[in-house]
């Protein structure tokens, strides 16, 4: 006679599985926030910005995803580890899955934000993948005058 299996209360599944698709358990909503906020990084930040815009915070522009992503990027803490993940996912999304390095407009907006923060190395990388040669040159001139020696002027452009 087969032994009856003991019934335990249903436990939430901690990861998605192709055999049994269930949603990840969500934490309880924060007071004053809508309960439909997803936990993924891009969606969470976009909805947080939309919620802030409804409450009189920064405004999102309709139909301009690069500008919206750059706005979210500029509002993030520069020392946050989530910022690196956000940039890589945003650039991967903007490439359209074609394996390119991301949309040039998004690279330009990220470079301008990093330039304002005086993060010249990261800004240079994003300027190189954008179509803004004049902005890149202006940033390199500022970088060489603020952080370099007079004898090293030619090395910043190389």
UniProtKB/TrEMBL annotation:
Residues 1-35 are annotated as: Disordered. It holds the Pfam family GET4. Keywords: Cytoplasm, Transport. The keyword Membrane does not apply. GO terms for biological process: protein insertion into ER membrane. One of its GO terms (cellular component) is cytosol. Belongs to the GET4 family. Component of the BAG6/BAT3 complex, at least composed of BAG6, UBL4A and GET4/TRC35. Interacts with BAG6; the interaction is direct and localizes BAG6 to the cytosol. Interacts with GET3. This is Guided entry of tail-anchored proteins factor 4. It comes from Homo sapiens. The lineage of its organism: Eukaryota, Metazoa, Chordata, Craniata, Vertebrata. The gene is GET4.
